[in-house]
């Protein structure tokens, strides 16, 4: 009986992991499509991002329910408890990433209807490429329990922050030089902000992976402090 319960518990944990990675795959595709929709531009693709958001939300609710059931039925401890808690936390970050992709898609539709912005598309493609890879790496780090890969995601987040600040300076300067462009360039700025937030959530997932594998809560720590703690563990 004990062996049967143990096998079922392991199956429950594997199912949580599988469902999370499936949700992650949807959000990853949302990110790709949102960037392509605004840089192409492609309103039909943007509409697909909006529709996918409904499925992402539904998956979040289902995963929340399943995590609660596992906690209630199995009362996990140690690493098993960390797995359930990490899945719950990562689920929230994935849902918020979907929300940000939704914002980019809305900006894509607005620009397609009212005219393209004169600047900012190069920055969107560049930051979008980095953020997309961060999403892939964060999910891969979770799937493989790979702390080194998780740290590399946190490192990339710093790069995204720098690229975002640089883009903001350039676009602000352009709007001052050409006030007629302000409304359209602001749509690009909001889209860039959404992409930067997706990078932040990918970095959050990386922190959850470190907690899952090492039992270290590295939230709200500097990158250097995070690396030091992991190395000393």
From TrEMBL:
Domain PhoU: 20-107, 124-209
Presence of the UniProt keyword Lyase in the record: no
Keyword presence, Transport: yes
InterPro entries assigned to the protein according to its UniProt record, in alphabetical order: PhoU, PhoU-like_sf, PhoU_dom
One cellular-component annotation, GO: cytoplasm
Subcellular location: Cytoplasm
Gene3D superfamilies per the UniProt record, alphabetical: Phosphate transport system protein phou homolog 2, domain 2 (1.20.58.220)
Protein keywords: Cytoplasm, Phosphate transport, Transport
Family annotation (NCBIfam families): phoU_full
Cited function: Plays a role in the regulation of phosphate uptake.
Family: Belongs to the PhoU family.
Assembly mode: Homodimer.
Protein name: Phosphate-specific transport system accessory protein PhoU
Origin species: Pseudomaricurvus hydrocarbonicus
Lineage: Bacteria, Pseudomonadati, Pseudomonadota, Gammaproteobacteria, Cellvibrionales
Recorded name of the encoding gene: phoU
């Amino acid at each position: 009986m004990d062996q049967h319960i143990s096998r079922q518990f392991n199956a429950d944990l594997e199912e949580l992991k599988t469902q999370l990675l499936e949700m992650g795959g949807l959000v990853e595709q949302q990110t790709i499509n949102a960037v392509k929709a605004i840089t192409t531009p492609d309103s039909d693709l943007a509409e697909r991002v909006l529709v996918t958001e409904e499925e992402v939300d539904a998956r979040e609710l289902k995963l929340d329910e399943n995590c609660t059931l596992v906690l209630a039925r199995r009362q996990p401890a140690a690493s098993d408890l960390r797995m359930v808690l990490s899945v719950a936390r990562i689920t929230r970050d994935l849902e918020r990433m979907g929300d940000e992709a939704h914002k980019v898609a809305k900006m894509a539709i607005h620009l397609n209807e009212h005219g393209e912005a004169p600047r900012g598309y190069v920055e969107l493609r560049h930051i979008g490429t980095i953020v997309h890879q961060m999403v892939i790496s964060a999910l891969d780090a979770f799937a493989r329990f790979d702390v080194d890969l998780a740290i590399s995601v946190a490192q990339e987040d710093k790069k995204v922050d720098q690229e975002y600040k640089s883009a903001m300076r350039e676009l602000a300067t352009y709007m001052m030089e050409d006030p007629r462009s302000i409304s359209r360039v602001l749509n690009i700025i909001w889209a860039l902000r959404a992409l930067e937030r997706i990078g932040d959530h990918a970095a959050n997932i990386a922190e959850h992976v470190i907690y899952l594998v090492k039992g270290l809560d590295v939230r709200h720590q500097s990158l250097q402090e995070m690396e030091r703690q992991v190395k000393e563990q």
